[in-house]
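Weekly structure sync, notes
Attendees: PL (lead), two postdocs, one rotation student
Agenda item 3: pending single-chain targets
PL asked that the sequence for the first pending target be pasted directly into the notes so everyone works from the same version. It is reproduced below exactly as submitted, 282 residues in total.
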Amino acid sequence: MAQPSSRADLINYCKRQLGAPVLEINIADEQVEDIIDDALQYFHERHFDGVIQTYLKYKITEDDINRGRARGVNNNAVGIVTTTATTTIAGTATTFSYEENSNFLEIPPAVIGINKIFRYDGSQTTTNNMFSIKYQMFLNDMYYFGSTEILTYAMTKRYLEDLDFALNTEKQIRFNQRQDRLYLDVDWGDVKKDDYFIIDCYRLIDPNDFNRVFNDSFLKRYATGLMKRQWGQNLIKFQGVKLPGGVELNGRQIYDDAQRDLEVIREQMSTTYELPPLDMIG
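Predicted structure, written out during the meeting:
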């Protein structure tokens, strides 16, 4: 069908673009599956329609806090990663020991990028703490909601946010999608059990759940180009072999044509479908 809605439909579409069923496409089924996987991976990692910005909510457990505050505690119990290195300095063997806390959260494989985590309310900002600045300002200046106009309320909230920004550092995070781990370099002494982390991240769009991915114009062209290149690569070793009827296979020409097509498609990805990198001016 002209509008693929499944993996099998996309495969058949690509083969028809290459000449099937008029021509026999000399590609093994295993190669076809690998090509579709590669095309989907490239689509998810580069195309702005391959991912969606979403927010994940994670509830902190006691085990998370113990791992985050693990320094100086039993390594086996909390999972500290210890690395040692031995070298010789001026004829003396010296051993260096390094420790890395297991202060990370396991992230689903579908998440390919994380922007930040939202701040959680600490002891200085929660409204149920009578010693906090927010509590006292609301107690003395807003004893009931109709006591002030909305402009004063907005200015007060902005002032509290400025205080929080000046006195509390931004939560530092580290993430690599090949690890599926979000490292949180925060003060774990301020983290409480059953608090929540809100993770601002990018998650790939699973084509099994949203089958319109298979009908994406870029994905169809790119998968067809990859399949054409594989077809030519399979036929290269038969260069010069004549078939019955005088037909001669030209795998090299098919491969070179496909390679040029893929270069054009990737260039269009960078200029049309991919979000431009952010830069700093000043």
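Discussion points:
- The longest strand covers residues 51-59.
- Residues 68 and 103 are 4 Å apart (CA to CA).
Action: rotation student to compare against the earlier draft before next sync.
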